[in-house]
């Protein structure tokens, strides 16, 4: 086998390993698991709470889900994501059902089915106490800055207010933070959820967005009548027993307990949530290490393609590099994670999507670094090696590549450091790495600064440590140059 073939084989083996080692959600759904999609920022429906030192998703939606799973004799698995990611997740089969205080609108009914309604609330406007009298009617909100949750019906209401400056965010807690820090004037939300935030600082305005009740129902994939029927049976049982009311009361009490604001110092935050960060660090390291490993292998392969003697092959290599360097990694991640699922039914887990994205993204940069290194080695080296009787492959392996590698080591090191930092982007698809955990801690503690400072410290320790390590290796390698 020549080098190219060997690289290709290694590359394929890597991909097979990546795909086989970790189970797909589509499979797990059939293995006696019921995957629930939710946006756990909506107390008392669903929210995060530390129970026995462990981050847990609780709320009355979760209790309902547990009953449904019990009736189906399946194990409940919860996937937490942004509210606007729920519909695509359900359509693509990433989750089996959505319980997230979701209102069954006509628009949504076009893409998914809904169970019977199980709860209702009212639309309200929340403002800072100082602004209490400022918005007596919906008309007075004209031109105001308004916060809403991305993809929610509140977003639609906001879009209907003339000249309003809309801030649409993933998580309710972030919207509240915007209101508290004077970045927006008002939030459109539901009274059941607002109840948890009302205080001396945050109050209800008199304006009412809509007097009709907001319903909540369970989302099921279109055509899955079997699940729909079973869900409705469970709901009927819970409603008739008064269980739903009890669950709502219990969840409200649980969430009230979350809000007793303690003045936490950054050390307290760190110590109390060290377990969260430890998990995050583990996944960040795993993502970066595998991203680097596969990026390296793919990069080498692409580099050889780019230096091929055949024009069309060279062109393919260039196109690969240019496309990946010319588009944001966030976009690549979305295509791999959601695009592949919705279009081809390839349902990758966040870990798989993360590793694939990091690998192919960094492979493009590494391919260029390798190429620069190889082309930087003096032509005479190849000629000399050939005249000593080595064939091209041998000369490449023993003479050119070692010199090239030494020359580009600092650039490779930089790329590795970049991958560690960029892996934070994977948090947006729900990968539980450092950045994701920092947001979870922020949502629990209502501290806007310390969770991120702690995350920054961890990233810095990792990148600085790596850069020191690489520096030492570089010096060792260059020792042979100084004679
Ligand atoms: N009921 C509203 C809707 O369906 C908001 C639901 C938001 N739910 C959540 N878990 N954040 O659009």
UniProtKB/TrEMBL annotation:
Region forming the signal peptide: 1-26
Superkingdom of this protein's organism: Bacteria
PROSITE patterns reported in the protein's UniProt record: ABC_TM1, SBP_BACTERIAL_3
UniProt key word Membrane: yes
Domain ABC transmembrane type-1: from-to ranges: 281-470
Keywords from the named record: Amino-acid transport, Cell membrane, Membrane, Signal, Transmembrane, Transmembrane helix, Transport
Location(s), subcellular: Cell membrane
Transmembrane segments: 283-305, 326-346, 452-470
Membrane topology designation: Multi-pass membrane protein
InterPro entries xrefs: AA_ABC_transptr_permease_3TM, ArtM/GltK/GlnP/TcyL/YhdX-like, MetI-like, MetI-like_sf, SBP_3_CS, Solute-binding_3/MltF_N
Stored Gene3D superfamilies: MetI-like, Periplasmic binding protein-like II
The family this protein is said to belong to: Belongs to the bacterial solute-binding protein 3 family. Belongs to the binding-protein-dependent transport system permease family. HisMQ subfamily.
Family matches, as NCBIfam families: HEQRo_perm_3TM (TIGR01726)
Protein name, UniProt field: ABC transporter substrate-binding protein/permease
